[in-house]
Structures are given as structure tokens and as C-alpha cells.
Write a structure and sequence with these properties.
- 52% of the residues lie in helices and 11% in strands.
- It has 17 helices and eight strands.
- It has an eight-stranded mixed beta sheet, with helices on both faces.
- The mean pLDDT is 93.
């Protein structure tokens, strides 16, 4: 049994807290929102996961020191926009070599850093890792079969995290490609906004398939330019997470996109969703990274134009369709492919 602190009491943090509790670990949940803690203690429920009965053996605190002290592992589960601020608060109580597993998905807009880079910058003595993949909190909290990937700087840490989280309904793989895992988790949210916008416009399955396929290409193109591995973008944290986020109504990014496609502004859509829509915060960062690494990302470009330049969603789709003609696989040599036949 491990002693674990879950830093953040949103739906994903609580789904993982319950999973870890069911795995036999001692779990303490920290939240900066006092009323949320009181509600969970009083009702045994979480407002975003109404079907989930919280175990009586979960512990709750608003004291960061109590949440972190003596813990074998910390799960950092706050929204991406709050990761730096929260990590800064954690630094005082973090012992050398403390394993901190980031489960948020995003890129810091001001610095273009991944979230593990942000955490490492704020807590340099921590052993920072990431857990990501196609894993909606609503389904994990119900015990539906789910797979994720744990990325770490050492095989030992990755396999330790794997053992902590693994259960009959939650399978964890390991990978050394932390950068690729994080980029996949962040970029797919931007593509999911595009998929939702297409749904809001009334487009069909053909459109969705096109956005998922070409979106995965954009993700891999940028990720590999930055040093990520090709396999990662066609694994769980790449195409796997992209498919589920583009297709499911559990996805806040897709839901926000649907509203934007129907004419809502980005702010109005986020207010309707009533949760942090990570893709809105990652879109500018994705575009800035594409420009920095000189990578073409037309879907990301059009999402930014809709979100921040008042471009109509219908016009954005039209411009995507009418771009210059090109090859699907520009690096495939015609002569060699024909010679193999």
C-alpha cells in the first residue's frame, strides 16, 4: 500500500483518487476550494461525477503540507492554467526525489513549456512524470476499462507509477517519451475543438474522420520537430486520446466546439460548459510552437482564427478545404513505391 496525495479535486483528480483508493492505497485529496471539500465530506458526492459514491476512507484537506507530507507519490490534477501556481505552492513541502505525476493536459501559453517542464522549473528537486491517454473521468469513475501511458525520466519511476495505478479496469503502459506524451495530450484538445465546431455546423462523419486523420498528422509533425517520437503520436496519448476527445460528449473541448459552431463565442461556450476547456488555452501556444518550429498546422491555424480573430466557423472550414493541392504523404517516393510492386 502506498500513501498518495492527490493535488486537485476536479473530476479527473477525484476519479483517480477513487481508483487509487480501490487499489488499496491511502489517499488524501487536496483542494484550494473549501466549499468543494465540505460538500464532498458532507454528501459523499462530487458535483461533476454525480453517479460516483466517494469512499469513506478518502481523506480531504485544504492544507498543502498535510496533503504532501510523508507521501510516496503525488498526483498533480489541477487544470493546466493553474499548474505553475500550484507547483509553486508545493515546492516548500516537496522532499528531494518526490515523485510528482502530472495528469493535466496543456501547454503554458506564456512560455510554450509543457506542464512537466513547468513543474520541474518550479520544483527542481522533484521526480516529475506524466500519466495520459484516452481517459474520461466519467468513465474511469464508473470502472469502465481504460488504458493510459505513464511517462518518466527513468524506467524505474515509470514502472512504479504503472504498478500504483494498474487495476483490472485501468491498464497502464510505460514510455520514456515524456515530451511526446504531453504534446499529444495538449494538441489533441485543439483538434477536438475543430471536431466539435464541425459538429455544431451540422457536418457529418466524413468531416470528423478527416479532422481526426489530418489532425493526428499535424500533432505528429509538430511533436517530432520538437523531439517527440513518432510511435507516441500513434499511441494512447496521441491518436488514442484524439479519437476519444473528438468523438465523445464527455469531452468538454468537443462540447465547447459544438457551441462555437452554432455561433457562440469562445467565452460563451466555456461558460456553457462550466468547466475549463483546455483546448482554448492551448490553441495559441500550439500556433506559436508551429511558427517557432516552422511546421504547417492548418487546422490549428483555423481554430485560432475562429477563437481569437472573429472568423466564422463556416469560413474556416471553407478555407481548409480550398487550400493548395498537396500529397497526403509528401515524403513517399513514387519511384520506390512503384518499383516494389
Amino acid at each position: 500500500m502506498a500513501n498518495i496525495g492527490v493535488i486537485g479535486s476536479g473530476s479527473w483528480g477525484m476519479a483517480l483518487a477513487v481508483l487509487l483508493n480501490q487499489n488499496g492505497h491511502q489517499v488524501t485529496v487536496w483542494s484550494a476550494i473549501e466549499g468543494e471539500l465540505e460538500e464532498m465530506i458532507k454528501t459523499g458526492r462530487h458535483h461533476s461525477l454525480p453517479e460516483l459514491k466517494l469512499p469513506e476512507t478518502l481523506a480531504y484537506t485544504g492544507d498543502m503540507k498535510l496533503a504532501m507530507e510523508g507521501k510516496d507519490l503525488l498526483v498533480l490534477a489541477v487544470p493546466s492554467v493553474f499548474v505553475r501556481e500550484t507547483a509553486r505552492k508545493m515546492k516548500e513541502f516537496c522532499r528531494g526525489g518526490q515523485i510528482v505525476v502530472n495528469v493535466a493536459k496543456g501547454i503554458e501559453e506564456a512560455t510554450l513549456k509543457t506542464l512537466t517542464e513547468v513543474i520541474s522549473e518550479e520544483i527542481p528537486n522533484a521526480d516529475v512524470a506524466v500519466l495520459s491517454g484516452p481517459s474520461h473521468a466519467e468513465e474511469v469513475s464508473r470502472g469502465l476499462p481504460t488504458t493510459c501511458v505513464a511517462g518518466a525520466f527513468s524506467r524505474e519511476t515509470a514502472e512504479y507509477i504503472q504498478g500504483i495505478f494498474m487495476s483490472p479496469v485501468f491498464r497502464v503502459y510505460t514510455s520514456p517519451d515524456i515530451l511526446g506524451i504531453e504534446l499529444g495530450g495538449a494538441l489533441k484538445n485543439v483538434i477536438a475543438l475543430a471536431a466539435g465546431i464541425a459538429d455544431g455546423l451540422g457536418y457529418g462523419d466524413n468531416t470528423k474522420a478527416a479532422l481526426i486523420t489530418r489532425g493526428s498528422t499535424e500533432m505528429a509533425r509538430l511533436g517530432m520537430a520538437m523531439g517527440g517520437r513518432f510511435q507516441t503520436f500513434y499511441g494512447l496519448s496521441g491518436i488514442g486520446d484524439l479519437i476519444v476527445t473528438c468523438a465523445s460528449m464527455h469531452s468538454r473541448n468537443r462540447r465547447a466546439g459544438i457551441l462555437i459552431g452554432k455561433g457562440y463565442s469562445a467565452e460563451e461556450a466555456m461558460n456553457q460548459v462550466k468547466m475549463v476547456v483546455e483546448g482554448v488555452y492551448s490553441a495559441r501556444a500550439a500556433l506559436a510552437l508551429a511558427e517557432k518550429y516552422q511546421v504547417t498546422m492548418p487546422i490549428v491555424e483555423q481554430v485560432n482564427a475562429v477563437l481569437f480573430q472573429n472568423k466564422s466557423a463556416a469560413e474556416a472550414v471553407k478555407d481548409l478545404m480550398l487550400r493548395d493541392k498537396t500529397s497526403e504523404s509528401w515524403d513517399l517516393p513514387w519511384e520506390e513505391c512503384q518499383a516494389e510492386k
